[in-house]
Each structure stands twice: as C-alpha cells, then as structure tokens.
Design goal:
By secondary structure, the chain is α/β, with parallel strands linked by helices. The protein has twelve helices and ten strands. The strands form two sheets. The protein has a five-stranded parallel β-sheet with strand order 2-1-8-9-10. It has a five-stranded mixed β-sheet with strand order 3-7-6-4-5. The radius of gyration is 21 Å and the shape is elongated.
C-alpha cells in the first residue's frame, strides 16, 4: 500500500455512482475520504429530443463523446438499434469518456488519449477542415455543455448535430450543514472538484460563514477553466490543477501537493540549532 497521501483528508465531490474509483485510489495511497456528492447526473429534460438526435448517428461520419455520463442514455439506444452503427467513427474527450463508451461496444479511436479538452481534440488531424467539410458529426454531451467544439466544427464546414443525453443538478439530499461542519472542524485538508458544476454547487449550497470556510480550504480541479472559476468565486489559494479527471491523475496531483505541503510544514517547524 502506498503512503503518498498518508494523513491527508480529502473531500470527494463526484456523483455518488462515480465516486468509488477515486475514493478507493485515495485510500489505497494512504489518504482518508469524505464523500459529499455535489452533482447528480439525471436524464435530459427532453429524452425524445435526445433520442431524435441519436437517430442521426447512422450515416454520420463521426461522433464525439464529451463525457463519460453520456453512456447512461446511449446504452438503451444501442440496445434498441442493434449496437453502434457501421461506418461511424468515434472520438472522445478524456480517458474516462473513452472507457465508458468502449464498455458499450463503441469503437472509440485509440489515437487521442491526450485530448483532455475540446481545444485538444480540435487540434487532431481527424478534425481538420479538410476532413470534416461537408460531413455530419454528432456531439454527445450534457445539457448546457460548452459550445466551442460544435461552433468550430461548423466553421470548418461540418454539419453538427448536438445530442444532449443528460443534465446536471444539485443532489436533492445534499446536506449543507454536514459540509459546513466538516469545513469548520478542520476535517478536510483539500477539496476535489472534477467539474465546474460541482464547484458552483458547493459554493451555492453554503451560507456566508460556510463559504468563508470553503474558500479558505485548498482546492484541486482538473482544468484551467475550473481554476479560473475558483478564482472568480474568491478562493484564497491558487488551485492545484490535475493533468486529467481520472483517479490516477488526481491522486498524483494530490500526492505532489501533499509532499510539498508536508515539506514546507516541516521546514517551518524545525527550530535551527544555535551555537553556544
């Protein structure tokens, strides 16, 4: 068992159904976990519109999976249509997205494991203007997702179809008092947030005193966009930014931060010897 996170108390804010792998990885590295789901993944407001968009997949050149959460609604569609349509390629943003849909039998391309953001994916040769011009591309995402990918592909001449397969919401059973008590009592050394929505929900859930505690607690995020949001919300620490949203990347970032923090604390608490 690793001891890289020994003594570290970590708040995990992922949806309950998705928190297990990260919690297990933190505990395997010696850390302790407090789970507080700050996000619920729910069906879309209009499932019929989502299914109608999915029905455009046959005959499309390409589909792009932007989140692992799309798998929940994609699964029944695939079952009803005999699997993934022939001749349709698939790209994914992030390893978690690729793994989630590969488990459904979707043939995700293997050459873009480094594509962690829309900007990264847009830089791939497969999405160059000469490759997408005049071709239909279906983007599988959640409601209110970033517009950059679709807008840029349309600018490059593609026909873009948006399939919004889920929505994000604050869990109805989220208990702000429990979170406030943990923050007040020093039971959390660092907060982890894998999405901007989780970060915003945490902030909105708390009253003024709870927010003060939250904003003074170190934070780990998984993208520069989330770091900018944390700054705008008023976080007093510059967030730690993991290289990805998967458990391994988050644990590695936590370990680096914890090591630096422990070293700094040790340096500040050792009293230099004096010469008689």
């Amino acid at each position: 068992m690793s001891t890289a996170l020994k003594g570290l108390q970590v708040l995990v804010t992922r949806p309950a159904a998705q928190a297990g792998a990260l919690a297990d990885a933190i505990e395997a590295a010696g850390g302790s976990v407090r789970s507080f789901p700050a996000l619920a993944i729910l069906p879309p407001q209009d499932p019929s519109a989502a299914c109608a968009a999915l029905d455009r997949l046959p005959g499309s050149a390409l589909a792009i999976v932007t989140s692992a959460n799309v798998a929940a609604l994609l699964r029944p569609w695939l079952a009803a249509h005999g699997g993934w349509p022939d001749g349709v390629g698939c790209l994914a943003i992030g390893g978690a997205s690729a793994r989630a849909v590969r488990e459904l039998g979707v043939p995700v391309a293997h050459d873009t494991p480094w594509a962690l953001r829309s900007e990264d994916l847009l830089a791939t040769p497969a999405l160059a203007a000469g490759c997408v011009y005049g071709r239909r591309i279906v983007i599988l995402r959640g409601e209110g997702g970033r517009e950059l990918l679709g807008a840029e592909l349309e600018r490059r001449g593609a026909e873009v179809v948006i399939a919004e397969l889920y929505r994000r919401a604050l869990p109805p059973d989220a208990d702000p008092q429990r979170l406030a008590d943990w923050l007040r009592d020093g039971a959390i050394d660092i907060v982890t947030a894998s999405s901007n929505e989780s970060l915003t929900n945490l902030f909105d859930l708390l009253d003024a005193r709870g927010r003060e505690s939250l904003l003074s607690t170190p934070l780990l995020v998984v993208s520069p966009r989330a770091a900018r949001l944390a700054r705008d919300l008023g976080w007093s620490h510059a967030p730690v930014i993991a290289t990805g949203a998967d458990a391994a990347a988050i644990v590695a970032a936590l370990a680096g931060w914890h090591s630096a923090r422990t070293t700094e604390h040790t340096t500040h608490t050792i009293t230099p010897a004096t010469t008689p």
